[in-house]
Amino acid sequence: MDPSKSAVRLTVVSNRARPGHDAPFAAYDLGLAHDEMFGQDGLPRSHAKDLYDTLCTLPVAELERRQQTCERSFLHQGITFTVYGDEQATEKIIPTDLLPRIVPGAEWDKLERGLKQRIVALNAFLKDVYNDGKILNDGVVPRDLVYGSKHYLRQMRGVSVPLDAYVNVCGTDIIRREDGTFVVLEDNLRVPSGVSYMLANREVAKRAFRDLYRGYGVRPIEHYGQELLATLKALAAGFRDEPRICLLTPGIFNSAYYEHAFLARQMGVELVEGRDLFVHDNVVYMRTTAGVKRVDVIYRRIDDDFIDPLAFRHDSALGVPGLMNAYRAGNVVVANALGTGVADDKAVYSYVPDIIRYYLNEEPLLDIVETYRCREPKALSHALENLDSLVVKAVGESGGYGMLVGPQASAAEREAFRAKLKSDPDNYIAQPTIQLSTAPCFVHGGVEARHVDLRPYILHGADTRLVPGALTRVALKRGSLVVNSSQGGGSKDTWVLP
Amino acid sequence: MLSRVADNLYWMARYLERAEHSARVLAVKLEAMLEQTPEEATEAWVRVVASLMWPLAQPVAGAPDALAYRQTLDRNQPSSVFNSIRLARDNARQVRELISTEMWAQLNTLYLRMHAVDADDEWRAQPVQFLQEVVEELLLFAGVTDSTMRHGEGWHFIQLGRYTERAQAVSRLLDLYFGSQPVDVTQKLSSARYFDWLSLLKQCTAFEAYCKVYTAHIEPAKVAEFLIFDPEFPHSIRFATDRIQEELSHVAPGAGGARRVQAERLAGRLKAQLDYGQVEELLAGDIDGFLQGIQSSCKQIHQSMYDAFIGYGVDELLTA
User: Fold this and answer.
1) Cβ-defined contact of A78 to B97 (cutoff 8 Å)
2) CA B187 → CA A72, A242, A459, distances in Å?
């Protein structure tokens, strides 16, 4: 036995670091939230123990060095997003935290079943509201809520969608309540992004904690590209054995362009912009040096509004004129289908448990956050009375825009929101402020607790699948509950255990 | 290959060739200036900068140092080396999934260096050194490209872009020396004129190669012969037009004969002009017209290549 090693081990045992007291956890606050590493007794949870031990043994300088290596790797690979300022656009790397967030296998399996149930029900809902509208006739979901949603597309009524799979890629935001249970915060059913960061984080975390990674036996996620390709391919099975698939991007000025190029490379499909495609006789073609080629499946990363200037916003220069007609004619598959935003509306969100019961005849496996629909007078008055403790959100928005976090807002901001709520209550919902769970992050030369959420990516076509992993988004500001990258959030790797 | 992608690769290569050419010309001129009187220097600079600058909205004027800075790092000067590299990188970013990671890293690093806040200081301290390093990085990029990228259609578009730009740049530069005033090829060169011709060779990275063929005895007629007609020197016009003709036959392998015939005919004709031309004939006749003819041929080849593979009308393809 190597004596120097056993000496290190002994020191660790005798100097067990406590959160809030000892380095490197001296600045670690255990607040009201559930903590991913420490239990209420201040001791590491069993699944976090190995990570905890590693952090206790590694010198801070070494952690710093690994963090820098990881940031340099992001910069060189061009894993950046563009921030538009006055004259010059600058490229910044996505803030990434070195320490993995660990999810025990049993917890993940339960989550996975809940997510699959949810996406199947939401797809059934979309098929229904764009065809017969049974759920509306039965009064389970109010008719005006669906038809009045700004994401409901009349153009999609009666359009047949391959395999009835409207949502093919879904990014669902999950949070942990104070009691440690996972609940759904929102679904992203339009063009969810961030999956490339899930994969990039894995690459750097694996390098930074080699032995730890192997010791934990983390479930792999690297096959995401293949799974996505298989899902897209199955959508065209009805009319083409070897479909030509392409990924439609708005172009290099889009903040997610890195992800588009990355996924195209991972899948080995053509990365196209709107100007590369055109429609003739309701068939979509792309323009190549050897002439024009027919396109069968478009994995689009452009919003509904911009995808076809003839059908939607006529000022869009990003889309493909005539695409909607080719789609209606069944000559091309578009994934996700158009008009899916009606099901991730924040007011519809509150009905999802009823939607699951209605179509699947099952109890929902995943809870949602208690939601007050301000369109209902009682809920509105409750919201107005408790603005300082609630989170208020505009129903059609995403990305952390159009929302008020009551406890963290100034009195003036609350009054401004009160006026908005009164004048247009239908447009808002309110939820209690949840202390998202905290996870250890490497900041300011130590390990501190930061609030995190969890975004797994669910694929749905001929079947439903997801890779055992997720993007863990981090609110890098101490105490902040907003994790969106557009609002100063970062991300970290998520290790799902066997 | 997507037409847009071919376009991006082609222009990436053209901008890089343009940056390399400008940087080398400026470096050589900054050094040559030390041997010249201020009047000679100013006169020479105005001519050279005029050949590098576009769009030429107003007549070129100013001190050599200011002109050199403008052509190197000025972000408001469309033809500056900085902007050429920036545009090349913009094109590369659009085909990030096609070029190799090594190519991207090399180009990205060069761009970040030109973009850095201390680039101006670096320039002021040692402008020639700065330009030479830019040239070296660009040469490195060409090497990385050749050894890490598949030599498929995309690579051929890159070569096509590089040599189209080179043929035009070298002929424009030669036109400055031979086009404006008749060159008396028989007269012995004064020492000032000698330096002028020497620097022309250096601007085309041709001095050493020239010496191997003709020895260090510099004569305008031989310089012209070497830079226009040498079949083996990579910066001669003939070498470039050979490559243009060759690369054109490799791009767009799936496109039928009818679509490519026009571009290939023009390239073949240009190649024949260089293969069978003679420097004595040119110097006795219209060398100015000849050099300008090369530039307009390159433009025509570019245009018909575009019409055939990139910006083509789709109607006849769909009905056929």
Assistant:
1) no
2) 60, 72, 80
Q: Is the confidence metric ipTM above 0.90 for this complex?
A: no
Residue of B nearest to A74 (CA): B105
Q: What is the pTM of this model?
A: 0.84
**HSE-up (13 A, CA, CB side) for residue A143:** 7
Contact A276 B2 (CB under 8 A): yes
Tokens of B156: 């051929």
Residue type at A479? G
Put simply, the answer to whether B2 touches A286 (Cβ < 8 Å) is yes
Please tell me the distance in Å from A318's CA to the nearest CA on chain B: 14
A-to-B residue pairs, Cβ atoms closer than 8 angstroms: 66
Domain-by-domain residue ranges, chain B? 1-149, 150-320
DSSP per residue, A4-52: HHHHHHHHHHHT---TTTSTTSTT----SS-BSSB-TTSSBPGGGHHHH
| Tens of each residue's pLDDT in chain A, 498 residues | 444 444 444 444 445 788 888 888 989 988 889 999 999 888 999 999 999 999 999 999 999 999 998 888 887 777 776 665 545 566 777 789 999 999 999 999 999 999 999 999 999 999 999 999 999 999 999 999 999 888 999 999 999 999 999 999 999 999 999 999 999 999 999 999 899 999 999 999 999 999 999 999 999 999 999 999 999 999 998 878 899 999 999 988 888 888 999 999 889 899 999 999 999 999 999 999 988 999 999 999 999 999 999 888 888 888 999 999 999 999 999 999 999 999 988 889 999 999 999 999 999 999 999 999 998 999 999 999 999 899 998 887 766 677 888 888 888 988 988 998 899 898 899 999 888 999 999 998 899 999 999 999 999 999 999 999 999 999 988 888 888 766 678 999 999 999
Strand, helix or coil at B303? helix
Sign (positive or negative) of CA dihedral B160, B161, B166, B167:
positive
Q: Which domains does chain A have, with CATH numbers?
A: 104-191+222-364 (3.40.50.11290), 370-432 (3.30.1490.270)
Q: Among A76, A84, A69, A24, which Cα is nearest to A51's? A: A24
- B116 Cβ contact list (under 8 Å, min separation 6): none
